[in-house]
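pasting for ref
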Amino acid sequence: MRRPNTKTISLMNLKYLLSFVVITLLTNIMPCQGQNLIVSDSLLMQLNNTRNKDKQLKLLKELSDETGKWDINQSNSYARRGLELAQSMQRDSSEAQFITIIAHNEYFLGNYMESLSLYLSSLELYEKMADIKGIIGVNVNLGAIYDRLGDEERSLEFYKNALLELNSNGQHIVLEHPEFKTVLFNNIASVYNRMGDTGRYL
């Protein structure tokens, strides 16, 4: 009796899995978009009906986060409005958050140099405020951008900065997200691997 071709079976299973994923996405994309629009419309209505600047900041942050799920350009528009307002109010925390959102969006739009410049600006603010979570997050993102640009040395520099900060002051982050350090180690190992140094991690 012939043994079944495992390669054929694997390909069939993969084809079925991909078909299932596509069908699932197609059946859920419209309801999800509809829900997103309802949420964003509600937030926009609240924004248009308030003159309280603190509430405006909060709503612009929520709008930029919400629309970022399905319209990056719209998210950028709200984030830039929020950034302008935060700067006029001299709110470093909100300013850093909005710059980080814009940097994140620009990365996914493929504008890596713009994203890089923005992340460096937000890093200065997070360091000024001694915001450990912000410092670690931005260092990781800078590592990812330099990795994307093919600058392994700079990528490692920022990944290691994140790891150093995590080990020194970020114990609460490790407790909340125990997988984070593993991901960071894997990122560092991946860079070393591409540099041909497969036995080195740190």
